[in-house]
Amino acid sequence: MIELALLTLASVWHNTWGNGQNRTLYPGDIDPYSAATEFSGDGSAYTAGKGVMSLTGFAPRYRVLENFQNVNVTVYAKRIEELKDLDFAGFQIGARSHHYTDNTCGANTYYGQLTYDGRVSFEKELFHGLGDDAFYPDVSDPSAQVYAFDGVPRNQWIGMQFLVRNMPDGVLLQLYLDKQDNGHWQKVLEYKDDGNWPVSTGHRNMNKICEGYYPKNKVLTEPGFVFIRNDGLGRADYRDFVIKELA
């Protein structure tokens, strides 16, 4: 187990949502006050410059396009309104991502997520829109699910910390929650990807078609960008989005 207090930081990225500058981002827009960030997917991202970013739309993604490897990603999120009932909707943090487009190959990402039904899980994605991604716990087994809430409450700030770190025997994933927005962090999930966490392609030739897009042992050790995402939104609010690169 890696204790939060013992982590050594190499660098820190902070959002600029509290700089007093009102702006709305649409798909393809770069945040003019944070050149490394881009809005993608569907919908919009709005901030009044007072520290809060509101995401809307069917598939909003706010991406920090720098190369991060070992990270502790923190964000606080507030559920407000959904326009579509989706079983995968909720607060999601993606790390070590190469998922720049909707192309089938090169979607490499580790996710830490809290879905609106209260489940917490990790996900490993290699291919976009094809086959089944790897989940921990197994989402096809109801008895294996881990619930942090009996449904995520609306209009309440919840903190998430997603740690992704290389270890001698794989990549360690940890998810912490601050359920009451009081600075009390609780570890709710941990998993180590040692190369035996399978991603089903759903197509017998996909490994050949996508050769070179992911490591042979399928452990995502390479750096990539970090992003927050949601789905089926009317609106969800975010604040205190910070990425800490670990030495």
Describe the structure.
- The chain is built from one helix and 15 strands; from the N terminus they run βββββββββββββαββ.
- The chain has 247 residues and is an all-beta fold.
- It has one domain (4-246): Jelly Rolls.
- The chain has a 15-stranded antiparallel beta sheet that branches.
- 37% of the residues are buried.
Topology:
Layout (H helix, E strand, L loop, with lengths): L8 E6 L8 E3 L11 E11 L4 E17 L2 E12 L7 E8 L11 E7 L3 E7 L8 E3 L9 E2 L9 E11 L2 E9 L7 E8 L12 H4 L14 E6 L3 E14 L1
Antiparallel strand pairs: 1-15, 2-3, 3-4, 4-14, 4-15, 5-11, 5-15, 6-7, 6-14, 7-8, 8-9, 8-10, 11-12, 12-13
Structure, briefly:
The protein is an all-beta fold and 247 residues long. It has one helix and 15 strands. The chain has a single domain (4-246), classed as Jelly Rolls (Sandwich), CATH 2.60.120.
> Based on the structure, what is the oligomeric state of the protein chains?
single chain
Helix content: under 10%
> Rough shape?
globular
Sequence stretches where pLDDT stays below 50 over 5 or more residues? 1-6
Radius of gyration: 17 Å
Query: Could you name the CATH topology?
Result: Jelly Rolls
Can you tell me the CATH class? Mainly Beta
* C-alpha end-to-end distance: 16 Å
How many strand elements? Answer: 15
Sheet with the most strands, sense and barrel status: 15 strands, antiparallel
CATH architecture: Sandwich
Tell me the strand percentage band.
Answer: over 45%
Structural class assignment: mainly beta
